[in-house]
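Researcher:
Attend to token order:
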Amino acid sequence: MPKGASVTKTLKVGDQAPDFTLKAHGDREVKLSDYRGKQNVFIAFYPLDWTPV
């Protein structure tokens, strides 16, 4: 496997999501683990959303 590559695991209903980090508004980083056990998390992806940054 190439350096830096990761293994993809298919999740099943009820599986705990793996931790990940995303860029939020203002280049702030948000980690899923920051919210674990505190509140529900809803993630939506908007492919090809042409709104200005």
Notes: The mean pLDDT is 79.
